[in-house]
Amino acid sequence: MILGIGIDTTNVHRFTDWHKKSSEQLQKIFSLDEITYCLHENKQTSAERFAARFAAREAFFKAYHAMCAQLNIENKKTLLMVQKHTTVQRNKNGVPMLMINWPALLPENIKAPNVHLSLTHTIEIATAMVLLEASQNQ
């Protein structure tokens, strides 16, 4: 059963100068691993990677709120609160995965859902889609 769906598109141009931000500034949104990955290549690649990861957080935030509404979970968490518990990692094949610190976001009696993430970007836009699916035992 689908518990929530979120999608977000952002302009890569918004992230053009993010490679100049301090680690402390970037850590308000991204994990250290994400920052290292995003800054690894050139400025354009950096902007695309930051934009895609930011879009993933926005998409997750939308899916998370939809899930909370569907499960009647009281939810007063802001985007910044949710972002702190969200990180994009890549599996051994390089496929992006959204890792969530569920204990920080859900009541103890709610089982964490399965998270599906799709990212895409061009030099102009980055788009992310997140689908939250009930676990088989839920």
Walk me through what this model shows.
With 138 residues, this protein is an alpha+beta fold. The chain is built from five helices and five strands. It has a three-stranded antiparallel β-sheet. Helix 2 runs antiparallel to helix 3. The protein starts with a strand and ends in a 5-residue tail after the last strand. The mean pLDDT is 93.
Please outline the helices and strands.
Elements: E1 2-11, H1 23-26, H2 32-39, H3 43-70, H4 79-83, E2 86-90, E3 96-100, H5 102-105, E4 114-121, E5 125-133
Antiparallel strand pairs: 1-5, 2-3, 4-5
Helix pairs in contact: 2-3
In short:
The chain has helices spanning 23-26, 32-39, 43-70, 79-83, 102-105, and strands at residues 2-11, 86-90, 96-100, 114-121, 125-133. The protein is an alpha+beta fold and 138 residues long.
How are the strands ordered across the major sheet?
1-5-4
What order do the SSEs take from the amino end to the carboxyl end, as H and E?
EHHHHEEHEE
Largest sheet: 3 strands, antiparallel
How much of the sequence lies in strands comes to 25-35%
End-to-end C-alpha gap: 9 Å
Count of DSSP H/I helices: 5
What's the shape? globular
Based on helices, strands and strand pairing, what is the structural class?
alpha+beta
What is the radius of gyration?
A: 15 Å
Question: Which structural traits does this protein have?
Answer:
three-stranded antiparallel sheet; 5 helices; about 140 residues; two-stranded antiparallel sheet; alpha+beta; single chain
